[in-house]
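Objective 1b: paired records.
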Amino acid sequence: MDQPLRIVVADGDEITCRFYEQFLPTLGHRVSTVRTGRQLVEQCRTFHPDLVITEVVLPDLDGVAAADEVARERPTPVILVSDSYPPLCVARALGGDWVFACLTKPLNETGLAAAVAVASRRFRQSEALRVDLAGLQQTLEERKVVERAKGMVMKYVGVTEEEAFRRLRKMASDRNLRLVEAARGILSAGAVFLEMEAAAPTDRRNGHRARDPIGPTRVQSFRASAVAHEIQTPRAIPYATDEQPA
């Protein structure tokens, strides 16, 4: 084993629980045993195990339902143990992503040791992939924000895509911000100006906007000036970024 584990075991049979208590510590693991499904859920809330081993048939709450509740509260790998696995039990186990191994009674030391090692390793790999996926999704969302802000600069400042990106990066550097934070600032300012433009009074008789002191032309001019000022103010605060224009 790579490292010792905290393991919670649920089984209604006293002899089986004694087997877990005697054998798993020889592999270096800490073991806590309970007899019912509800006890399993409660023990996991306080013990925070690295692994759960549970008999499918348990008093008051079966092992599949109990393990499902444990995994919803805190991602935890589970090994199911049973005399047999009817189709309904298999279907319920496949409904979640928390079952990493299944064992059939009577248990033996070799099979149990292998199941514990495989379940623990596969769970760590699964969690690493989940973290990587979340990071990729965040990067994609941030790039979408930067692209929208770049388009706004191109529209209201009247520059090319490359120049818009350069000025956006310079604004981030001048303010010591991440590129996506500077982009969100541009989008927030743009949203305010769009609301102001939408709120301009309209001549109901001909469907055109009335000539008011702050009409669409002046709003657009003010908006362009504001965005241009935000991305052109020179400062000397270095900021490294690995963002590149699309």
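Objective 1b, second protein:
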Amino acid sequence: MEKYKFRPYNKDYPKLYERELRKLRNILPKNFLIEHVGSTAVLCLRGKGLIDVVIAVPKSKINSTKRLLEKSNYEFRPNAGDKHRLFFRRDYISNNKTRRVHVHLTRYLSKPWCEMIAVRDYLRLNKKEAFRYEVVKRKAVKMAKGEGEIYRKYKSKYLASLSKKALKHGLNNLYVH
């Protein structure tokens, strides 16, 4: 799978997320919050075509949830997260194409949870900002030449600004949509 290839929006993204949500609901406790985030959660936003999912759990459930995800073939990537967010990925085949899911595991109301939800909601409501983000992502893909660290570093300053703006505008409702 080409990880850092810029793709047009695909109308199947919501269906792919729903499929992933069903799988996660079958392996995780029902009271955990699960949301679709990232580019594929914003209608018409182009990007890498990865389905990003964020899961919020009580702090006391982080380690047991990590084990459940690993048992269900989500690959834990220790260097891809941070102290507030564990990162997993899973590849699967859909319509003869390899698809990738990124899962971000965090605590209820953590900084990553609030930022991811706020950015998603802000981009859904602000098409000009979504287009700016798309331009940044396109340049990041071009600059990275397949290197994840370069891709993330190129986007980091813009994403920090976008997160701050989204949170400031109060679009983060912190509830399941």
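The first strand starts at residue 33 and ends at 37. The chain has a mean pLDDT of 90.
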